[in-house]
Amino acid sequence: MVETRIRFGILGCANIARKLSRAMLLSPNTAISAIGSRSLEKAITFASENHFPKSTKVYGSYIAVLDDPDVDAVYVPLPTSLHVRWAVLAAEKKKHVLLEKPVALNVGELDTILAACESSGVQFMDATMWMHHPRTTKMKEVLCDEQRFGQLKSVHSMLTFLGDDDFLKNDIRVNPNLDSLGALGDLGWYCIRAILWAHNYELPNTVTAIRDPGYNESGVILSCGASLNWKTDGKVATFYCSFLSNLCMDIIVLGTKGNIRVHDFVIPFNEKVGSFYAVDNSKWAERALGCAPEPTEFKIATDLPQEALMVQEFGCLVAGIRNGEAKPENKWPVVSRKTQLVIDAVVASIENGFVPIEVVY
Q: Are 87 and 140 found together in one domain?
């Protein structure tokens, strides 16, 4: 018996939807059933350019996708300011929700989305793709090896890219009416998620924004950073995100006995192989002319790109719910909410003069 694929509807024709629609076509358990845009012509063009199957329904509105009985789940790549409206409506119409990050402008909005999903019994997941790469699993194995890594002490994450003049003037991510969190929401989300991931999602006690973030003329953040502190064991983390610096996607995780470094954690340089470096028991060489041992490079191969693995996992969760075999997986709402709480704390620290902000779940 051939397993029925989970049928996706896509709300909007954002650039990121090109990548995710490709993932839906590559994933063995998902299909694209419908695409909707505010413009029917735009939706038709998008479906054609991205090689959607001829069976895909094309609509000139988002609501038509949600009303389609042949849609099991929706992918929402709309601007963040529209998330609460369309994600809630999708959940109310019993559609499972794969939501682009940042998932909301604040945790209050996210709680509204999550409450709607819980009430309707639908799966929620944010589209943080790197978490689904097998490299991420291998890195966690190294982190959990106390003989090799020891106790976690510090994490540092960075995500930056240099936006051109057109991006900095016209992209939705610098528009206060569409994505008012700017670089913090778009890039800082990944950095914060990496920090929480390394800490097994233990929230920091306090978050303190670094002074002098960069803004555009509309007051949207173009670059910022923060420090996160845990009372237990004196653990600390920092992150920096920016639309104003050369491309960088680094995580450094430091332990008492070893460390991990990854240089492309958000989007692997090669979608078929994800690499990272690990070293343990490092010591200075004689006369401090070097150090030993040298880091080991791990190369983790994958048959599917990480975004296809993400939609495949989401499809499996939806299938389990649809078949009555499982309830919605609660991990993903919890992880999203914790990430959003830290983003909110960074915003609060900036608005209150860069003071430490307590984080409470």
A: no
pTM for the model: 0.96
Q: How many CB atoms lie within 10 A of CB 338?
A: 20
C-alpha to C-alpha distances, 333 to 16, 22, 162, 251, nearest whole angstrom = 21, 25, 31, 24
| Residue 101 annotated to the active site | yes
What gap in Å lies between CA 224 and CA 351, rounded to an integer?
13
Q: Rounded distance, CA 98 to CA 70, Å?
A: 17
Residue 250: name the closest of 100, 125, 101, 130 by CA. Answer: 130
Q: Tell whether 147 and 113 lie within a shared domain.
A: no
> What's the pLDDT tens digit per position in 77-109?
999 999 999 999 999 999 999 999 999 999 999
C-alpha distances in Å from residue 85, one per residue of 62, 76, 110, 350 = 11, 11, 11, 27
Which member of 95, 101, 235, 338 is catalytic? Answer: 101
DSSP 262: E
Are 121 and 137 contained in the same domain?
no
Rounded Cα distance between 50 and 5, Å, is 19
Q: Residue 313 above 80 pLDDT? A: yes
Mean pLDDT confidence for 39-47: 97
| Amino acid identity, position 206 | T
Structure tokens at 70: 């042949």
Residue 173 makes CB contacts below 8 A (sequence gap 6+) with 179, 182, 183, 185, 186, 220, 243
Q: Which residues of 88-127 are buried (b: 16+ CB within 10 A; e: fewer)?
A: bbbbebebbbbbbbbbbbbbebbebbbebbeebebbbbbb
**Domains: count for the chain:** 2
User: Residues 234, 212: one domain?
Assistant: yes
What is residue 270's DSSP assignment? B
